[in-house]
């Protein structure tokens, strides 16, 4: 595994182990005496800021370089966490939490850009899966450690978040500076021509943008396991413990199986894997229309978890393949923007549909799934088989040389 990927994965792991802000924000706000209405408003603002952070960080990385952008994200996380401990008023808490959310959500697209740049093409999918595994293990440990800490030290919880982010920043300083050369583009042609080509790289690639929108809709369907699914499980008489077991099973399957699955899937065309993953996610939700019982619950969890393991690393791999030199950060960032938006909208939309009719979320997922699966298959096949003129770059050889240099 190239050294830059090891550094980014270790930094992500450390950052997530101490990532108490994202997990315990509602409890932190409640401990400051804010009411349910204020907390709801704050969480909505923070979610919107996180979507913006995921969408903007790639543009920053393509200008400043991934190394500086990642360090900026983690250092901002540390400083804002400390500030959030000092300023406890509602307005200040919301503003600081929103900025903190932007920094936290901005990390992943840029980290995926580093993998896109440095991973050998034949092993890139597995390295995306490996990065997600370290990320998820860190998040699981962070939830456990944060829960134990928050029980008696809620007032110092954000201090731990800041310490982990500072340590993560120091680790990122070991990234090679050559990563910036690859991200900012190089090669022949006038400066004006290169600048014009870079500016239209993403906007001139409507097929890829359409794929990202479909990925966002897939995320909407997937995230229904956080909204209407717990309501359906408890309404069926199984209780919150059953839902907790479902989430645990999902986490264990992803952490144990995603890398081995990627070793098999990397031999299959990306458009097939992406469509199959979307089909699994959709089927995992649609099957709940038969009514939650133990058989349906088990089948559902296996399906949408399998879909997650197929969709998440493959979408990043597709973005890496599609991005021209100088635009890899923007491509990963736009994908992250669509996926984060979908994950933010899905739970609330699912609960709304569940309130109209208990089966409506699941049938809606099935109907939408037909378009998602077909669209994903044909869009990815078309995009990767016929590169658009916006992504054509005569300097691919130089870019490849720089990418190889970053792995040494």
Structural class: mainly alpha
Radius of gyration: 21 Å
- Helical content stands at over 70%
- Shape, per Cα inertia axes: globular
Measured by DSSP, the beta-strand proportion falls in under 5%
Kindly state the number of beta strands.
0
Count of individual helical segments: 17
Mean pLDDT, to the nearest integer, reads 82
Largest sheet: none
Descriptive overview:
By secondary structure, the protein is mostly helical. The protein has 17 helices and no strands. The protein has helices at residues 3-17, 20-31, 36-64, 66-86, 90-118, 124-153, 157-172, 178-184, 191-199, 206-222, 228-235, 239-265, 270-286, 294-322, 328-356, 360-385, 396-406. Helix 13 (270-286) packs antiparallel against helix 14 (294-322). It is globular and about 50 Å long. It starts with a helix and ends with a helix.
Map the helices and strands.
Blueprint: H1 3-17, H2 20-31, H3 36-64, H4 66-86, H5 90-118, H6 124-153, H7 157-172, H8 178-184, H9 191-199, H10 206-222, H11 228-235, H12 239-265, H13 270-286, H14 294-322, H15 328-356, H16 360-385, H17 396-406
Helix pairs in contact: 1-5, 1-6, 1-7, 2-5, 3-4, 3-5, 3-15, 4-5, 4-7, 5-14, 5-15, 6-12, 6-14, 8-17, 10-13, 10-14, 10-15, 10-16, 11-12, 11-15, 12-14, 13-14, 13-16, 14-15
């Amino acid at each position: 595994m190239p050294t830059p990927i090891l550094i980014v994965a270790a930094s992500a792991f450390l950052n997530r182990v101490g990532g108490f802000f994202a997990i315990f924000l509602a409890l932190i706000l409640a401990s400051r005496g804010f009411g349910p209405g204020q907390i709801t408003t704050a969480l909505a603002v923070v979610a919107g800021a996180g979507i913006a952070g995921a969408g903007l960080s790639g543009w920053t990385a393509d200008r400043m370089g991934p190394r500086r952008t990642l360090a900026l994200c983690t250092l901002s996380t540390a400083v804002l966490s400390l500030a959030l401990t000092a300023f406890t008023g509602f307005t200040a808490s919301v503003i600081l939490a929103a900025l903190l959310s932007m920094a936290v959500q901005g990390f992943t697209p840029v980290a995926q850009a580093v993998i896109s740049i440095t991973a050998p093409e034949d092993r890139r999918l597995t390295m995306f899966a490996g990065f997600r595994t370290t990320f998820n293990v860190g998040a699981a440990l962070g939830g456990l450690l944060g829960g134990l800490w928050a029980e008696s030290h809620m007032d110092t919880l954000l201090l731990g978040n800041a310490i982990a982010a500072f340590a993560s920043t120091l680790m990122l300083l070991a990234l090679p500076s050559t990563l910036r050369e690859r991200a900012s583009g190089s090669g022949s042609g006038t400066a004006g021509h290169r600048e014009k080509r870079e500016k239209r790289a993403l906007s001139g690639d409507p097929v890829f943008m359409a794929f990202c929108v479909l990925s966002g809709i897939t995320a909407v369907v997937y995230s229904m396991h956080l909204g209407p699914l717990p309501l359906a499980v408890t309404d069926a008489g199984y209780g919150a413990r059953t839902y907790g077991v479902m989430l645990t099973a999902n986490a264990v399957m992803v952490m144990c199986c995603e890398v081995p699955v990627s070793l098999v899937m990397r031999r299959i065309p990306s458009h097939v894997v992406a469509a199959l993953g979307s089909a699994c996610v959709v089927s995992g939700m649609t099957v709940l229309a038969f009514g939650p019982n133990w058989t349906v619950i088990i089948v559902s969890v296996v399906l949408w978890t399998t879909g997650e393991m197929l969709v998440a690393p493959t979408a990043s791999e597709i973005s890496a393949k599609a991005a021209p030199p100088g635009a890899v950060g923007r491509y990963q960032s736009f994908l992250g923007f669509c996926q984060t938006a979908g994950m933010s909208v899905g739970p609330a939309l699912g609960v709304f549909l569940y309130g109209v009719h208990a089966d409506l979320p699941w049938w809606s997922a099935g109907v939408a799934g037909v378009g998602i699966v077909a669209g994903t298959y044909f869009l990815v096949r078309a995009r990767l088989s016929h590169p658009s003129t916006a992504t054509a770059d005569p300097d691919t050889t130089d870019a490849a040389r720089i990418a190889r240099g970053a792995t040494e």
